[in-house]
Amino acid sequence: MLYTDQFVVELIKQGYTHLCVVPCSFAKNLINASINYQDKLEYLPCASEAVACSIAAGLSMSGKKPIVIVQSSGLTNMGSCITSLLNPYEILFPIIVSWRTYTEGDSEIQHRHLSTKLPSLIEAYGYKSIILNKNQIEVAISQIDSCSKEKFICLLEENTFSDVSLYKENRLDLSRFQKRSIFLKELNKSHKDTQALIIGTTGNTAREMHHYMPSTNNFYMAGNMGGALSVGLGAAMAGKKVVVCGGDAEFVMHLGGLTTSGRYRNLKLAYIIFDNESNKSTGGQNTYQDHLNYLDIARASGIPNIYEISTIDEFRIYLEETQDLEEISVARVKCSYDSMSPRPSMGDIIDSKRIFLSDS
Ligand SMILES: Cc1ncc(C[n+]2csc(CCOP(=O)(O)OP(=O)(O)O)c2C)c(N)n1
Questions:
Q1: Same structural domain for residues 190 and 124?
Q2: How far out from the chain centre does Cα 180 lie?
Q3: Low-confidence residues of the chain, pLDDT below 50?
Q4: How far is residue 120's CA from residue 129's CA, in Å, rounded to a whole number?
Q5: CA 223 to ligand 1: nearest atom
Q6: pLDDT digits (tens, 9 = 90+) for 200-222
Q7: What local confidence, expressed as pLDDT, does residue 360 receive?
Q8: What is the pTM of this model?
Q9: Structural domain tally of the chain?
Q10: The domain containing residue 312 runs over which residues?
């Protein structure tokens, strides 16, 4: 295992300037150390992997030394940037991709395909993959350095880095907000015995829905981060009444889903952004999105009904008011989170697709 703090100090010594990151739980310790050292090596939390790659390209062409850190599913989001920007312009910088694994029967079905195909995807992009050395920092650093000279992408395996906790000043205090599970239980009450289709976004939101919303018609979208609203838009256009449960990191990943939705106001589509200010699913890293006004963005995208919620009483009023609404709405619910989110089984995740075929 690599000693994480020493690894980051070594990156600073080698002159690296920026880490462009979309979090992954496999890279949690490296990301925590990067956040802790951000005064020396700028930590750049990015809305999507495509954004991370483009920012790094801009930095690199301007003489800086960025590194991109993403997870395997995020490498697909970077495809256009890699093939149509990095390749033709010969822009080289280190890209570290956490290699998500899969064992048969595992519920993390979103990682099944790339768990074996990742090296061939990398090859199709015109790169070779190298597995980041887990034992010797000098070797690992020289592998990272080699990515600026040749077309290599570094694969990060689980347990490569030693444990690192965020410094106190980098930890979020969400104690003044109610947990997301409290709101989900309320949603379960208000939507049980209805035909509404409830779509849960990638990560802990869908998992918690499985646990706290046993009486509703739920679709658990394990992967495709950022796509929940667009899936909901499709279902609503097919005539369904839909509630989409999203998150603050998920909201920004494919923001175009919101701008597209705004064009179609007369649909029974409610989008609830559970804003816990963090990527809870990948270790609780701050999303650093204080600068965003989620509801102003929704309004400016053409969404006619907007709700700001931070208590369970406000949530109950919102649920009552929107019960028979036949227009798109967006609600932002300020919340904290439960420390544990039990996973649904693989069968429950895959079977949840049949909800789309039931009458509504
Ligand atoms: C394309 C892609 N990039 C990164 C991830 C890893 N990932 C899974 S959930 C998640 C964070 C989601 O954050 P948010 O939507 O705020 O919900 P929360 O985790 O707080 O429940 C991330 C980064 C992913 N699944 N897919």
A1: no
A2: 17
A3: none
A4: 9
A5: 25
A6: 999 999 999 999 999 999 999 99
A7: 54
A8: 0.97
A9: 2
A10: 180-357
What is the residue with the minimal CA distance to atom 23 of ligand 1? 23
Structure confidence at residue 107 (pLDDT): 86
Q: Which residues line ligand 1 (CB under 6 A)?
A: 22-24, 71, 73-74, 77, 201-205, 223, 225, 247-250, 276, 278-282
Of the residues 282, 333, 337, which should be mutated to test ligand 1's pocket, given the most ligand atoms within 8 Å of the CB? 282
Ligand 1 midpoint to CA 17 (Å): 25
The two tokens of residue 163 are 């444990």
Looking at residue 104, its pLDDT comes to: 87
Q: Are residues 35 and 80 in the same domain?
A: yes
State the pLDDT at residue 342.
87
Q: Are residues 206 and 306 in the same domain?
A: yes
In a domain, 19, yes or no: yes
pLDDT on residue 105: 85
Select from 119, 134, 166 the last residue of a domain. 166
